[in-house]
């Protein structure tokens, strides 16, 4: 009898040791999976898969619809715009250009600390510079005599380029508020973009009327020397202009209802993306696979009654999908810096974030006063929208513990 008790005692010790080892292993796995969250906040993909039933819902960020008109707290935690976190978006800065003057172009410096905005309608053709971090004005760049349609910072932050209805391109040393290069054109120039490596500058606009045909073009220049490189032909006007991430492809067009795809080095045509109506903006995904074009889907009595975004496969030139349901013309599109979301803004102020995994179930906000211009900071931390009243709203994700 004592022998059986001794065997039972040994079995209890062995089983107990195994159970303790298993518990220690489980705790170690959980710790390894929860100590490396980006920005200190877990995303759904970073959460460990539990091996037991939890007594609570592990979803860290339930879908919410915050009021964008409410300002964030003075000391929020900055989190990049990416999938799973865009429901935390809030307006935290508002900058005012001249009231009643439309905001038409917005651009961030590479580190996201400075935003430039410009536009005009009847009189205010200045380019405004704003310190995003300290919420203060840095003054204006003055020199254009017509509407400033677009602005763009160079990838190294040294230059700011602007294009205008006064038929000029100006390249600024914005810190010293001086012009380093000016170029005149046959007509107004509407769009401007630096190549990702900062070596080239592209300008799109009107190239005059020949044989009763309205011509347009994209002109490229070597940054620094400002010598002309390539001229890309188009028609009517070029409202949409974007480089691929590698800089080898240039996408441009818009007013002709076509968006052309060219080899950036020599202007060789690659594809034509044909639309039912004119295109306002275009954006290329960070992986170079997709082009998003902002356009109108339905027109009644010359008014756009349904705006949309068309998605194109850049390597093949094929139309992938149409995203509709916007109450008015979609004025602008942009991918988040990590490519996880496509952002689209329409004239009525509808602001949508589409997950690029399937472009379904977008999160929607309302930007006050409508949307005419939009930009995502290169560091991925900020979004800016501009409206018809000269207001610029700067948004960011805010985690409130």
Radius of gyration: 26 Å
How many structurally independent domains? 2
Strand content: over 45%
Sheet of most strands: 5 strands, antiparallel
CATH homology-level superfamily of the largest domain: YVTN repeat-like/Quinoprotein amine dehydrogenase
The computed structural class is mainly beta
Shape: globular
Number of helices: 1
Which CATH top level class of the largest domain fits? Mainly Beta
Overall average pLDDT: 84
Q: What is the distance, rounded to the nearest whole angstrom, between the alpha carbons of the first and last residues?
A: 61 Å
The ordered H/E elements are HEEEEEEEEEEEEEEEEEEEEEEEEEEEEE
The helix content is under 10%
CATH topology of the largest domain: Methylamine Dehydrogenase, Chain H
Tell me the CATH architecture of the largest domain: 7 Propeller
Low-confidence stretches: 1-76
List how many beta strands DSSP finds.
29
